[in-house]
Design a protein that fits this description.
four-stranded antiparallel β-sheet; endoplasmic reticulum; alpha+beta; binds 2-acetamido-2-deoxy-beta-D-glucopyranose; Jelly Rolls; single chain; transmembrane helix; Pro_4_hyd_alph; 27% strand; membrane
């Protein structure tokens, strides 16, 4: 009050400018309070967790939190686990929501056909005993849900959406499997569009009661050190394995950082023993893949 009376004595102009400054300060205060209340601004808090294991120490599973947004529509915490460096493989927990998993299964269901494999001599698709699942492709950018998933894949892998093939949806019933194979091509035909397959993201759309693991029989490191070792089928224990869990995604690289092919990326789908397995695959190329 004293200040204002003093200003009034000096001049009208300074009175109005100090009122203006005061009004702006009050306004700014309310804006900040509103933003903090709405959760747009957050007060920084120190997180003092620094138990970082050594990069190549596979005896302890590395847990790297990337996006700890608790209770994202009740779909669990999102975090990334490094499971192997040879091959380079990562599990992104709760990558897809329950609704996204169900959406993909329902979209694909009416279009499922017996799976084929690529003939390395002719480059054409052929029926095979090594792959007994059924599947279908969903075109890249097909609808809003798929575009959202494809954007999330690009954000996680740092590989642009345009380098991805369409999502493949696969269904394995009891006894169905995919024998160990490489995702990279050894023929000229299949690399004409987009070049070599560089990385694969495998998304599990359902839980599987028993079997159906993704197994890497050529992985280096202690394969029995995974926390889920005792839950694996006999097939799953033949290598480094990932147990299917709805919403989880497995990323692995078929190429080493020097762009040579990585034979340790050999992988297969173990036979389903009990239950039903739905999964979705996104293959990513070195160059743009024209749809
Ligand atoms: C592999 O990991 C298991 C479980 O952590 C441990 O019991 C075993 O001794 C390890 N084996 C080697 C060769 O380090």
């Amino acid at each position: 009050m004293a200040k204002i009376r003093h200003s009034r004595l000096q001049s009208r102009k300074s009175t109005s400018s100090s009122t203006l400054i005061f009004t702006m300060l009050v306004f700014f205060f309310f804006v900040v309070v509103t933003l903090v209340t709405l959760g747009i601004l957050s007060v920084p808090s120190s997180s003092g967790d620094s138990s970082t294991p050594k990069a190549n120490d596979l005896s302890s599973i590395v847990r790297n939190s990337v996006d700890r947004n608790h209770g994202d529509e009740g779909n669990g915490e999102r975090w990334v686990e490094v499971i192997s460096w040879e091959p380079r493989a990562f599990v992104y927990h709760n990558f897809l929501t329950k609704e996204e998993c169900e959406y993909l299964v329902n979209l694909a269901k009416p279009h499922m056909k017996k799976s084929t494999v690529v003939d390395s001599e002719t480059g054409k698709s052929k029926d095979s005993r090594v792959r007994t699942s059924s599947g279908t492709f969903l075109a890249r950018g097909r609808d809003k849900v798929i575009r959202t998933i494809e954007k999330r894949i690009a954000d996680f892998t740092f590989i642009p959406v345009e380098h991805g093939e369409g999502l493949q949806i696969l269904h394995y019933e009891v006894g169905q499997k995919y024998e160990p194979h490489y995702d990279y091509f050894l023929d000229e035909f299949n690399t004409q569009n987009g070049g070599q397959r560089m990385a694969t993201l495998l998304m599990y759309l359902t839980d599987v009661e028993e079997g159906g693991e993704t197994v890497f029989p050529a992985a280096k490191g202690n394969i029995s050190s995974v926390p889920w070792w005792n839950e694996l089928s006999d097939c799953g224990k033949k290598g480094l394995s990932v147990k299917p869990k709805r919403g989880d995604a497995l990323l692995f690289w078929s190429m080493k950082p020097d762009s040579s092919l990585d034979p340790s990326s050999l992988h297969g789908g173990c036979p389903v023993i009990k239950g039903n397995k739905w999964s979705s695959t996104k293959w990513m190329r070195v160059n743009e893949y024209k749809a």
